[in-house]
User: Fold Pyridoxal phosphate homeostasis protein from Granulicatella seriolae.
Amino acid sequence: MTEIEWNVERIKSSIQDACQAANRLREDVQEIVVTKNRTVDEIQEMYSLGFRHFAENRVEKLLERQAEFPQDDIVWHLIGPLQSRKVKKIIDQIDYFHALDRMSIAEEINKRASKRIPCFIEVNISKEESKHGFEKDQVINTCLQLLDYPMIKLEGLMTMAPLNASSSQIEGYFQELRELKEKLELELDDLESPLSLSMGMSNDYPIAISQGTNYLRIGTAWFTNNKN
Ligand SMILES: *Cc1c(COP(=O)(O)O)cnc(C)c1O
Assistant:
């Protein structure tokens, strides 16, 4: 067994366990392979193991990856912040955008996209200065405004826990995002489909599952067994 195979087995079984503990369906949780800083061989191995959801946090890198992996069965997620001037060259190349963090980007996407693009609103739940995203109390109004942008499909909410937070703090942040999503679903009564949550990374994905996440953005843990 390669190190990657070993990690995949370990992570898959802990996703399964977390779903079971939370009484959730396994198919409601989609793991995404974050390929940031990984080699072509490592990503190829993940593809060979059957993974089809891949993510990058930078526009140039994502385009480079697509050139390396032109397989048309890959679902591409952009998970990092997007600058207005880069919207045009990336927006039709991706399947999901996880980091809609300001209104001006929504406007630009609406103007440039030639197909509807599923977007997650990034929420700065932990209120860290350094973090991107809307404040929690701006989210409902923002989403109401987004209904006027036909090219944006409101897919759900995304957040990141602070690096140094304890498990119980992380659980609190993830719970806040879930409750905000539930509130939003009540406010926006003509939603075409239920909203999703994008939360959970290498160090906190079991907690995210317990709080209802639908998309796990896992990078490091697939490739190294170093739980630092
Ligand atoms: C890098 C990154 C991840 C993955 O982080 P790991 O700790 O390596 O699992 C997830 N989400 C975003 C937005 C990232 O930039």
Remarks:
- The chain has nine helices and eight strands.
- The longest helix spans residues 167-187.
- The pocket of pyridoxal-5'-phosphate is lined by residues 34, 36, 57, 79-80, 160, 201-202, 217-221 (CB under 6 Å).
- The longest strand covers residues 152-158.
